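Technical note accompanying the year-one report. For the benefit of new consortium partners, we illustrate the data format agreed upon in the data management plan: each record pairs a sequence with a structure-token string. No post-processing was applied to the example shown here.
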Amino acid sequence: MVNPFFKNNGPFKILEIINFLNIKDNDLNKNIEIQDIKDLITSTDKDITFFHSKKYVDIAQKTKASFCITAEGLKNSLPNSCTPIIVDNVLVSVSKITSLFYPDSISDDFDENVTIINDTKFKNKVSYGKNVLIGKNVSIGENCKIGHNTIIEKNVTIGDNCSLGSNNIIRNTLINNKVKILDNCVIGKHGFGFFPIKNQNLRYPHIGIVLIEDNCEIGCGATIDRGSMSNTVIGKNTFLDNQIHIAHNVKIGENSIIAGQVGIAGSSIIGSNVKIGGQAGISGHLKIGNNVEIGGGSGVIKDIPDNTKVMGYPAKNIKEFLKGNR
């Protein structure tokens, strides 16, 4: 399970799933039990997965899932061991199935059960300011500091020697050792995932978490969304400047530096030793290689290979950019 904090209501028989989606009867073995819904990479033969874009053909061909929600035009890319379930809208169907397995992941209201830190087991363990609130299923390591008005809602683990500033809200997050989170950050809320259907917006459940690895620093006013079907990850020794937005499922490698007001859209993968200048924007579902440098104000709309410097909109090799702007 991607998120150890959300309860999985499975298993469900495949018959229950296809009935839930109002799919017409077919030749499926309807008594097979499905334990979980997972992405193409992490699925096992006990799971159902989804495949919605040709961008993921190589991954789809290797999936170990027994069943896959997909479109008619993509089904032939799946291995013989994975039975396709054809639907009109893959992502809407995945949203519905995820809500079946994880009904608690849809709502993201504030935590009504937080307690003043003075009334918790942490009162003599943690150095803290005024009006600090703690939710259920929270763990805090040694030598940690928490600033004024910070709310650590349910389902948070904090390692040793961490410093959390004032006015932060954190939930569904695993924070490793020696991490600094400055003021006014929101970490672990659900991402911006929904589908417009008949004048309504169908909210996509987010069952992932945020993982912040050792020695990271998160600047003031940062927002880091938890993952939808996988986790959002900030790699070891990566520093984020102020007012940065990291969307759901983004994965940032080690030793990276990201300047202020950068936005990274959902499911993009950022390599290690990457430098991103201020106010740059990175579109979703992209792969940015290792040792890449992205100039400030750039707009990245396609993958960038290792050891590349880019700038501009759309971002291009920095030599081409400078030549065209002399």
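Partners are asked to follow this layout when depositing records. The chain has a mean pLDDT of 93.
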